[in-house]
Design brief:
The protein is built from 8 helices and 7 strands; from the N terminus they run αββααααββαβααββ. The protein is α+β, with helices and mostly antiparallel strands and 239 residues long. Strand 3 (101-104) and strand 4 form a beta hairpin.
Length: 239
């Protein structure tokens, strides 16, 4: 085998490297001349997204014969990636200082001679993004759990308040009805429930005996059994 057989053409090597780096994260829309992002792209940290996008731009000459820019201005990166300029500019400066990318005027591109280091950096960014995403999800779940706990506590207080406060109010209502003569006629639990409902106080039938028995113990009412619809029921009446 001759040494020349071991030499790969630079264009072939670059195409293979680009494909290896970006295939999991992006695809090419040849008609629109745009790079589109696969779901896994979202797992990258911002640093990795910038590098993947710039590497993907280097692939256009291998995808189409038409002229498509292989570099990008900060405004174009901001629009494509959705990274705010205040976050994007420091990333570009850092990547340039570490010789991952270069700039000509105000346009940035990846150094084709340094694609191997770029690939390592993207893999690191992917891991960092995954870890960050996991931490974010954990914080979100913790916040949701805390929120649910807070809502539960509030609802418990409300239920407690509803149990305690209306009890006094209903006794006061019964006292007022006694004074108004409502109980001059025998009143069943159903009659009392209906009166509460007429005043927009939705009370359960099962909770009424405690209020009425309290009036009986205070000798405001007396209770006796009467037949109603063929059944004997307790009725309450003023003494």
């Amino acid at each position: 085998m001759a040494l020349k057989d071991l030499i790969a053409r630079g264009s072939e090597l670059t195409e293979q490297q680009i494909e290896k780096i970006v295939s999991d994260y992006v695809g090419y829309d040849v008609e629109e001349k745009k790079v589109f992002y696969r779901p896994s792209f979202a797992s990258l940290a911002n640093r990795g997204k910038v590098l993947v996008h710039l590497v993907a731009l280097q692939g256009w000459p291998f995808v189409t014969q038409e002229a498509v820019a292989t570099d990008a201005a900060p405004a174009e990166l901001e629009e494509a990636l959705g990274i705010p300029g205040g976050t994007l500019r420091p990333i570009l400066k850092e990547l340039k200082d570490h010789h991952f990318i270069r700039s000509v005027g105000r346009r940035y591109s990846v150094r084709q001679s340094g694609l191997d280091p770029v690939q390592s950096e993207i893999e690191t960014a992917a891991n960092r993004g995954s870890i960050t995403g996991t931490k974010t999800r954990r914080r979100k779940r913790a916040a949701q759990a805390s929120e649910r706990e807070t809502v539960t506590q509030v609802e418990t207080k409300k239920r407690s308040s509803r149990r305690n406060t209306p009890g006094v109010s209903r006794r006061e209502k019964i006292d007022a009805w006694i004074e108004q003569g409502f109980f001059e006629e025998p009143r069943s639990l159903s009659d009392v429930k209906k009166r509460f409902h007429e005043e927009a106080d939705i009370v359960k039938l099962s909770s009424l005996p405690s209020y009425l028995l309290d009036a009986v113990k205070r000798y405001q009412l007396k209770r006796t059994k009467m037949k109603h619809n063929g059944k004997e029921v307790w009725v309450y009446q003023t003494s």
